[in-house]
Design goal:
This protein is α+β, with helices and mostly antiparallel strands. It has one domain. The protein contains five helices and nine strands. It has a four-stranded mixed sheet. A three-stranded antiparallel sheet has the order 3-2-4. Strands 8-9 form a two-stranded antiparallel ribbon. Strand 2 and strand 3 form a beta hairpin. The protein is globular, with a radius of gyration of 16 Å. The two termini are 15 Å apart.
Length: 191
């Protein structure tokens, strides 16, 4: 099977145990992504958010034989509890997602058999499904202790420049957190 993983955040530079079997490619599907999840380490992580501008995400092949193995590998990498299967999206089967048809059409164009992606919700003020306003996101980042703020800065700076969102532009301007050199990935257009 030809199985791909979609990425828009730390998977790109820190795949860890995720069995990525290729470089990351440009020209993934257009998806609504924003820096809208308060992470456990302080980062304001990128997540799918309905109602925000779309960006073209990245993708890579995975060295797995089944969709179930791909879902499990991504679940482990993301630290998602087994009891939360909806936090790992997949096509052609898996929890229903408002983005499934779009991803399916893109996967068909790429000749893929299956696709997985992280489907963690926005989180603000400790509440899942709550997207922070841009002002709340800035306030959250301002109030972090120095170590957690440094981690948040590195996350935003290392996220590929292709993930050009409204919050990223405001955060970069406010804190002068410009993209790191490695965020300027030399991406192949296709596999």
């Amino acid at each position: 099977m030809k199985i791909a993983c979609l990425g828009w955040g730390s998977l790109i530079w820190k795949a860890a145990e995720l069995p990525v079997a290729s470089d990351w490619f440009a020209k993934g599907p257009l998806l609504p992504i924003e820096f809208a999840r308060e992470g456990d380490s302080g980062e304001l992580a990128t997540v799918l958010c309905e109602g925000v501008a779309e960006v073209q995400v990245l993708w890579a092949f995975l060295a797995v034989d089944t969709l179930e193995a791909a879902r499990e590998a991504l679940r482990e990498r993301e630290g998602v509890p087994v009891e939360q299967p909806a936090c790992i999206g997949s096509w052609p089967s898996g929890p229903q997602s408002p983005f499934q048809q779009r991803i399916a059409a893109w996967a068909g164009e790429q000749g893929l058999d299956a696709v997985v992606w992280t489907a963690l919700p926005p989180r603000s003020g400790g509440l899942n499904q709550r997207m922070p306003s841009v002002e709340e996101a800035l306030d959250y980042l301002r109030k972090l202790d120095l170590e957690r703020q440094a981690h948040a800065r590195d996350y935003i700076r290392r996220t590929p420049v292709a993930i050009d969102t409204e919050y990223r532009r405001v955060i970069a301007h406010t804190f002068n957190w410009q993209p790191a050199p490695e965020a300027q990935l030399d991406l192949d257009a296709s596999a």
